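Schema walk-through. Below, the input block comes first and the output block second. Nothing else is stored per chain. Lengths vary across the set, and this one has 327 residues.
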Amino acid sequence: MDILTGIKKNSFVVVGRVGMDLSPPTDVKTENAETVVVAMGGSSANIAAGLSKFGASTALVTRVSDDSIGRYCLNQLKHYGVDSTHVTPIAGEFRNSLALYETRVEDHQSVIYRNGAADFQMSIEDVEAVDYSKYGALITAGTVFAAEPSRSAAFRAFELARAAGLPIIFDVDYRPYSWPSAEVAEDVLSRAGTLSDVIVANDEEFGFMAGGIDKGLAKARELASTTASIVVYKMGHLGAITFANGTETRTGIYAVEAVKPTGAGDSFMAGFIASLAEGRDMDEAVLRGSACAAIVVAKPSCAPAMPNNEQLEAFLATHPGPSDVKG
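--- output ---
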């Protein structure tokens, strides 16, 4: 399978949650808030929206609650141009994911409500209803594996995508609050990693999969030399190491004045994959993903802050960088 050929089709099926984000005004603590800003959230939905802003064709596969919050999510997907054909409402007491996070860096607080989450009800039947031959690649984020029946459905989606010749792009995105235990998460996320062609995660997530933060880099290197074609090992302000084509390349970051820590990973993934879809080389794609991450942390909200091509080019033209790296 030629991974880049699939990505260059610029048509993606994205598996995972869409939710609602609530944010107090900039620098206001949640406990002091009198108003909030509402925006679409959820890692997979954010990635899909980010890719759509770059001109990609995207479709989301998940479940939403059959209520006003679920309808809000469907409206937002339409707003961002994400196909919601396979976003299925579910009745009963299941509820959409809800995130309340602050637009501040110091003492930042994020509170995520995931009890009885609607997206965890995504079923094998849901993913089997998708025609994978219509897409060039499958993208998902790790939370989709945190509970059943979503976990089995996501692994089934991997099987169907593989059978259709699609590369699998995996953002590990480990969120402890979604999992029954760290041991289950380590086992399941590691299994998903070995089935993926492109893996993006930070140093802590790779370390978690390896059983220790000091083993994370070795884990990334091992995956790149055995099952994955592209592995991006992110290190926050220290940049990233990309493993591809038998090489290891270090890249820096674009320094900005951050107003929040959230949304960077989703924006990085969108910018990185969109750049590969455009035919840019690996190092440039990583740097453009890093620029997208910088843009999002410097603005309120997540999906609304994600750049399009024009905004990304304007940022690159006005910001020095990336930072120097060593090693």
